[in-house]
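Reopening: RNA polymerase sigma-70 factor (ECF subfamily) still failing for me.
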Amino acid sequence: MTAALTDEQLVVRAQAGDRGALGELLERYERRTYNLAFRLMGNHADACDAAQEALVRVCIRLHNFRGESAFSTWLYRVVTNTCLDELRRRGRLRHASLDDGMPMEEGTLPRQAADEAQGPVEYAERHEVQAAVQRAIARLPYEYRVVVILRDIQDLSYQEIAAVLDTTLGTVKSRLHRARQALRTIIADTEGKCLEIAG
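Support: Ran it again with your exact input. Result attached.
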């Protein structure tokens, strides 16, 4: 039974032609692949297309995986590159809302569930802050957006991000620093405009 196998063991078996191992590996990462694609693409339809294309690329290129990084790091790289390729193919970097609900078989599930201990005012305030941050992330240039998502949302280490993006550790740190500065500026500008409208 392949359920107890590690990613590395499944990769070795899949590279040797074990279709069951490949299926288990893809199933293990299907949701994470979609989640990353959704955050990078900004909407459900484009995320589904990009995630599907990324998983196809994983199947085709699995024989190239040498185990120099974790399988998850390699997969994130494939997903990130697939999304970037799609955005470049369209000739634009789409700036869409990231606060859509997570599509489920039963309907749409909100990305942030309400804390049962909170009242409606506290929940609304927290939700508005999260939505503002997500909108700000969507406005970042792709190279900044991807490092923020990989570090602050996906919780990858700097080394893992460098491997995913095929760049240096210094570049990752520099982009992340600039991205966070840009986020602060975007959020401050948005708050300023809101205050002008309210005043």
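The radius of gyration is 19 Å. If you still see a failure, please send the error message rather than a screenshot.
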